[in-house]
């Protein structure tokens, strides 16, 4: 009987709490920027992310000025401090710049002043944005469904970490459930924002008919930790202080292969240096390196054919020769297969979902491919606009905000498809 009462109390608390706060699924660039915008505007929000903690990401994103400018205001930092903290080459006692030399890129994005752009380490950026936010790491949203009343949506969490509610801890104690493996739970809210990225569980649950495209490109990436000496010997002379260098091999109507080497992270006496190899698909489904239907967790299954293909590239210039050496990448690399996904939720679906208290933002609403895309810019711009909209008008103002953004989302997806083609020299 006592157990029942505690259970009931917890249920009511969760429900009540759910009505008052904005619930954000995903603590990536969109979710965190939204969280910070709401924090600045005094609107309570809680974020859920399936990752157990702010895990170190070995990769980097290019930030152009329009993407990072709003973050300076949200973080209360000047550009120099921000850049020095998040740049890929920032480390203890060493200020980073993340410099990009546009002469070393195979394609320059139109209208961009690269003197003000830089490469940010994603982990450093996420860590900075996450400061002061209420984030429940390890909370994976399993599904989303209509709530028990109009305008409410229910969020179902898988293996969720315990929210800090009176009574819940004693419930766990009484039930003898270890804190590390708490049971799944559900809650309801009138403002759920799906910011859970290109493979969004929120989108899959609420707008399941959204077409997800896989562009016809073979893309593999990896990274190795180099000593400062290895970097100086093999990479620095060609990179000339830039944190990225690219080259293209082959060409023609179909487009050539593109190789890139990037500084992704810096440590005392060592650097994490990434490589990427991409090319258009050859021969459609017969291409052994194109696996459009692979499962998400199969990204680490890299076919032997990749190393054979890298070996057949012939004598490359440095740093490509060293970083894409098939033997070295195979032995001590961390290679991954990347799929170039696109998605755009239909505007009618967005309006329909808005009536139930569910909203989508960032890659969850409109995914652009990793290569050629400007997903970071879109995610940050969306999040600042959405946060201010919620603060000014509440969730009921969001459909009008969608109207101001949708054309840009469509254009963003369209332009990213064009950009990845241009990167590979195709027309
Ligand atoms: C390797 C790489 C390099 C990139 N480089 C660039 C670049 O140079 N320039 C650029 O503009 N863009 C780049 N992008 C794309 C850019 O990072 C994304 O467009 C941007 O991060 C989108 O932000 P988002 O918040 O919508 O999604 P994300 O940043 O992907 O965040 C989604 C979050 O949701 C969480 N999540 C997912 N599913 C669940 C669930 N079921 N429950 C709870 N949480 C969940 C994830 O853990 C993640 O933290 C790159 C992407 C990658 C992967």
UniProtKB/TrEMBL annotation:
Pathway participation = Secondary metabolite biosynthesis
What keyword terms does UniProt attach to this protein? Answer: FAD, Flavoprotein, Monooxygenase, Oxidoreductase
| Molecular function GO labels | FAD binding; monooxygenase activity
- Superkingdom of origin organism: Eukaryota
- The FAD-binding domain covers 21-87
One matching Pfam family, short form?
A: FAD_binding_3
Q: What is this protein called?
A: FAD-binding domain-containing protein
Organism, scientific name: Diatrype stigma
- Recall the taxonomic lineage recorded for the source organism: Eukaryota, Fungi, Dikarya, Ascomycota, Pezizomycotina
């Amino acid at each position: 009987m006592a157990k029942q009462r505690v259970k009931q109390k917890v249920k009511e608390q969760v429900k009540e709490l759910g009505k008052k706060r904005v619930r954000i699924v995903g603590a990536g660039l969109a979710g965190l920027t939204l969280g910070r915008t709401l924090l600045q505007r005094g609107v309570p929000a809680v974020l859920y992310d399936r990752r157990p903690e702010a895990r170190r990401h070995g990769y980097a994103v290019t930030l152009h000025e329009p993407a990072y400018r709003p973050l300076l205001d949200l973080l209360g930092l000047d550009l120099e401090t921000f850049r020095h903290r998040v740049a890929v080459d920032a480390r203890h006692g060493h200020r980073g710049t993340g410099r990009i030399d546009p002469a070393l890129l195979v394609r320059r994005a139109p209208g961009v002043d690269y003197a003000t752009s830089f490469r940010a380490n994603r982990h450093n950026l996420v860590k900075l944005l996450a400061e002061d936010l209420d984030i429940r790491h390890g909370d994976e949203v399993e599904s989303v469904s209509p709530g028990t009343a109009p305008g409410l949506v229910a969020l179902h969490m898988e293996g969720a970490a315990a929210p800090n509610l009176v009574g819940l801890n004693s419930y766990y104690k009484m039930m003898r459930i270890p804190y590390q493996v708490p049971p799944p739970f559900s809650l309801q809210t009138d403002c759920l924002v799906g910011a859970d990225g290109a493979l969004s569980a929120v989108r899959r649950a609420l707008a399941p008919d959204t077409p997800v495209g896989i562009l016809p490109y073979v893309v593999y990436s990896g990274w190795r930790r180099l000593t400062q000496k290895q970097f100086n010997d093999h990479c620095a002379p060609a990179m000339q202080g830039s944190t990225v260098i690219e080259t293209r091999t082959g060409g023609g109507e179909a487009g050539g292969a593109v190789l890139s080497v990037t500084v992704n992270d810096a440590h005392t006496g060592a650097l994490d240096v990434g490589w990427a190899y991409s090319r258009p698909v050859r021969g459609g489904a017969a291409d052994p390196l194109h696996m459009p239907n692979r499962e998400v967790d199969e990204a680490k299954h890299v076919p032997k054919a990749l190393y054979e293909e890298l070996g057949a590239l012939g004598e490359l210039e440095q740093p490509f020769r060293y970083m894409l050496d098939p033997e070295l990448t195979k032995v001590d690399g961390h290679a991954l297969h990347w799929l170039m996904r696109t998605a755009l939720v239909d505007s009618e679906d967005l309006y329909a979902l808005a009536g139930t208290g569910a909203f989508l933002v960032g890659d969850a609403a409109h995914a652009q491919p990793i290569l050629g895309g400007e997903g970071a810019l879109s995610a940050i711009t969306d999040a600042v606009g959405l946060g201010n909209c919620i603060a000014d008008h509440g969730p009921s103002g969001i459909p009008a905000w969608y109207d101001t953004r949708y054309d840009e989302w469509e254009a963003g997806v369209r332009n990213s498809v064009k950009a990845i083609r241009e990167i590979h020299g195709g027309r």
